[in-house]
Amino acid sequence: MGAFLDKPKMEKYNSHGEGNNVRYGLSSMQGWRVEMEDAHTAVIGLSHGLDLWSFFAVYDGHAGSQVAKYCCEHLLEHITSNSDFQSALQEDPSVDSVKNGIRTGFLQIDEHMRTISEKKHGVDRSGSTAVGVMISPSHIYFINCGDSRGLLSRGGAVHFFTQDHKPSNPLEKERIQNAGGSVMIQRVNGSLAVSRALGDFDYKCVHGKGPTEQLVSPEPEVYAIERCEAEDEFIILACDGIWDVMANEELCDFVRSRLEVTDDLEKVSNEIVDTCLYKGSRDNMSVVLICFPGAPKVSPEAVKREAELDKYLEARVEEIIKKQGDEGVPDLVHVMRTLASESIPNLPPGGELASKRSVIEAVYNKLNPYRSDDTDPDILFFRGFS
């Protein structure tokens, strides 16, 4: 879980789509971690007669990728096919019944995975958080199990966000202690940093306790929010590798600013993960961006400001390099630190200078094509430049 590479793997998996009056883009990147343990789901138009419904989720695996991968392939079917969920759809969908059906799907897949692993070679020790949204014609159902997070931007501000399930949270800590465990260094029994997750069966074997009473619970919190077509802008689902370095308002402001310069949701998603990498995230990173018709639109004024900012940064990098004169070409660290000490107008809110790292790096490489390997910017990533 704690092993890191010498330099990050920045290759990305991307996807996008649209339908049911929403558009989405997603990006995932391994980053500094030795393995990629994230997974995701994006489905527009569900089975079982739910053509107008959509489902999106991010799974953040730990101690292996098996649970995350299984959930991305099978969780949705466990939700939509269980009797509790199906009964909720017989007539007008009942919000509470839909929520109960989602909860049942989580408990069912968790028990199913336990049975599968026990039939193989003992208990699979991997686990995964899950954060998702099920979007119906009338409601947005936010689903959270663990410390990944989802949020809704409405009317130009953060309208809702899920609550992280951390062992130190009072209700989570109470359940852990009632199951005979303890919370040390903010972790379950001093080991696991999340208090709810799918899998993690080593923490779900307390006799006499039900599945939702164990040290780690597979029970999601489900929140139903009525849709507001006039004001709903976008939803962000992301693993904690994103939230470790970006606050809710920062990420919303950043996404809003990016949507004003491009309508390419894959590009915006890529900018999110790159910016978080440059801000210092050391984890796998996955983000799904779902846009409603009320999302910010491309603005000619914003596009012009962005072009002027890029041009200004390119000129400043050239000036910084030339200023060194006979001392030789400064390394990229010096360039970034110099820019970070300056007041630069119109930097993207939330992303700040870190979100412009690629622009700065590109002009630096162009002006310094024969740089030595020890100053190769591909291996220079620093915190504190935002």
Automatic annotation (TrEMBL):
Its EC number is 3.1.3.16. One of its GO terms (molecular function) is magnesium ion binding. InterPro entries: PP2C, PP2C_BS, PP2C_C, PP2C_C_sf, PPM-type-like_dom_sf, PPM-type_phosphatase-like_dom. It is found in: Cytoplasm, Cytosol; Membrane; Nucleus. The keyword Plastid does not apply. Pfam families: PP2C, PP2C_C. It is a lipid-anchor. It catalyses: O-phospho-L-threonyl-[protein] + H2O = L-threonyl-[protein] + phosphate. It comes from the Eukaryota. This is Protein phosphatase 1A. It comes from Parambassis ranga (Indian glassy fish).
